[in-house]
Amino acid sequence: MTDSRYLKRTILKEQIESSHLGESRTLRIYLPPGYNEVLSYPVVYCQDGEEFFNFGRIATYANQLILDENIEPFIIVGVEVNTKIRTQEYAPFGDRFEKYTACFAEEIIPYIEQKYPVRRTPDQRILAGDSLGGSVSIHLSLLYPELFQQVISLSGAYYQQSQDTIAQAQNLTDLNVYMIVGLQETDFESDTGIYDFVQLNRDTRDLLQARGATVQYSEKDGKHLWGFWQKELPAALKYFLPEI
Q: Is the pLDDT of residue 5 over 90?
C-alpha cells in the first residue's frame, strides 16, 4: 500500500446544511483516477466518514482496486459524525435517529446526485458502516428501499430494537448485505452495555435471510477495531463493484 499511485488521491471536503439536523454536516468525497464529469459512477456512502478515510484507508484501497484489479471506477462519500452524539444518531432508540436518517436520504443523497455524476438507482448506491454504522445502514435500507438495496456491514451493532425492526419487515428480496464480524467480539463493551456481537450478527443474518434478503456472511479472527475492518474492506467493495 506504499505505491505512490495508490497514495495520489483526490479527496474533497464539503459542508451541507441540514434542515433536519439544524446544523451543517461535513462530507468527504473521493473521486477516482481518471474522473470525468461526462461519465457516471457507482457510489459508496460511508457512515463514520472520517474514520473510513483515516482508519479504513478506503480511498487508498479504492485506488488499488481501480488501478490494479480492474474494478469499475467509483465515487466514495464519507458522512462525518460527532462521536459524542453518534449513538443518538445511529441507534434506532437515539433521540436524533429519525433526523439523521431523514437528513441522509432526503438531503445528502440529493445534494451528491445534483453535484456529482453518480448513478441514481438503488443497485448503484452502496451503504457502508461499522458497528452502529452498519446497523443504521440497514435501517436506511428498510426506511428507504427505493434508494438503498446494497449494504456493507462491518461488525454491525444489531441491538434488540434493530432486530425487532428487521423481524417486522415483510419482503427483503431486493436487499443484498455483506456482513462480517470478528470472532473475538463476543464480549464487546459499548456505551450501552456489553454485547456478544458474534451472536447479534448471526441472529440478524438469520432474520434477514428469512425475509428473502441475500446475505454474504463471514466470521474471521478479529476484534471490534479498525485494524480488523480495514483488512476486510477490499473484499467487501469487490463484492458489490464489478470488474470492467
A: no
